[in-house]
Write a sequence for this structure.
């Protein structure tokens, strides 16, 4: 099943949240056994950022911009993956050097 994940931190301003957002969130996605499902380009568990043209982000950004009319910020975190049916958990933490806490909106779209 195709899954699009977008964790909004910086782009929460477009939804009216202009203070206390988490700048630079890192997301880790785990399967039912607790194994990490994604790693970033540096081999670190989890994923971060949502840059235009990124391998994990292009489909997500296109969906949100064209279908939803909402632009993701490059410092938000997003990924598009095909995942088997199952139970998953996640964690969202701040990247070192960014705000230590704040609000995020975790959005998952199934088979867009």
């Amino acid at each position: 099943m195709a899954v699009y994940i977008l964790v909004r931190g910086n782009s929460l301003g477009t939804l009216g949240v202009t203070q206390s957002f988490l700048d630079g969130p890192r997301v880790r996605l785990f399967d039912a056994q607790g194994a990490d499902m994604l790693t970033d380009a540096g081999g670190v568990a989890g994923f971060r950022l949502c840059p235009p043209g990124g391998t994990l982000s292009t489909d997500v950004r296109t969906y949100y911009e064209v279908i939803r009319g909402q632009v993701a910020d490059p410092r938000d975190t997003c990924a598009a993956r095909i995942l088997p049916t199952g139970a998953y958990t996640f964690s969202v933490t701040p990247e070192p050097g960014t705000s230590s806490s704040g609000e995020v909106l975790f959005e998952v779209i199934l088979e867009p």
In short: Residues 15 and 66 are 17 Å apart (CA to CA). The chain has one helix and six strands. The first strand starts at residue 2 and ends at 8. Residues 58-68 form the longest helix (11 residues).
